[in-house]
Design a protein that fits this description.
By secondary structure, this protein is α/β, with parallel strands linked by helices. α1 runs parallel beside α2 and α4 runs parallel beside α5. The protein is globular and about 45 Å long. Bound molecules: zinc ion.
Length: 232
């Protein structure tokens, strides 16, 4: 079956565009557990172990509430997830969205929390160093934004990161070419479940989940072509 790669941002009790309510998140995770889904990581998406029901959990931006609210649920259910961090904003706030009309200032994980995130068996990916629009900057800046997180995680945690997420879901062919040289996969904000042979590793679609996603809609997104037909 096609693999749903779930896209989350923040998990808390606030009402804003990037947050999902903790109770909804908990219900979704328990629903998947009850239906025998298992998490895999992005490097396994083309393993043809199709007897199993697999899915992937992704968090963009590295919000502190993911550490505080989502991690305990993931541990309880023995699920793993990947979080894409913006390395120059670690321990700070989501200032890149500051000029948006519905801006909500939110705290991002600090180094200690990321260390613990990794220690708990969770994965880490790159979301550039400054959360910029990669389709709209010069080659050198683009390249720096893409590769700096690799050095950052090597230096601070001695780990090699292999997975990338395009900020704002924006990229051009030059962006993709640089990403290809340094990472094994890149996720987008395009919508679909992942199908073997249909998508390349640098244009991986995801299934967005927000507060309007009730359990019935969640079921549709996981089990039916509901998301697949929204791919552009
Ligand atoms: Zn982002």
């Amino acid at each position: 079956m096609p693999i749903p790669i779930l896209m989350y941002h923040s998990i808390n009790t606030e009402k804003n565009n990037v947050s999902l309510n903790i109770d909804n998140f908990r219900k979704q995770m328990f629903f998947l557990k009850k239906n025998n889904f298992q998490t895999i990581n992005l490097n396994q998406i083309n393993n043809k172990n199709s007897n199993k029901k697999n899915f992937i959990i992704t968090f963009d931006d590295g919000y502190e509430d993911v550490y505080l609210n989502a991690l305990p649920i993931l541990k309880e259910l023995n699920f793993s997830a990947i979080c894409y961090f913006v390395t120059n904003f670690i321990g700070k706030y989501n200032f890149w969205d500051e000029n948006k009309s519905n801006y909500k200032k939110m705290k991002l994980m600090n180094l200690t929390q990321i260390k613990s995130w990794i220690h708990e068996g969770m994965q880490v990916g790159a979301h550039t160093s400054n959360h910029i629009d990669l389709s709209n900057c010069e080659y050198n800046q683009k390249k720096n934004e893409i590769i700096e997180p690799i050095f950052f995680f090597k230096k601070n945690f001695s780990i090699d990161i292999e997975n990338f997420s395009y900020p704002f879901g924006k990229f051009d062919s030059q962006t993709t070419n640089i990403v290809k040289d340094y990472y094994k996969t890149a996720v987008t904000t395009q919508r679909s479940r992942y199908k073997f042979n249909k998508f390349n590793f640098y244009n991986i679609p995801r299934v967005p989940i927000n507060n309007s996603t009730n359990l019935l809609k969640f079921w549709f997104k996981i089990y039916t072509p509901y998301e697949d037909i929204k791919f552009r």
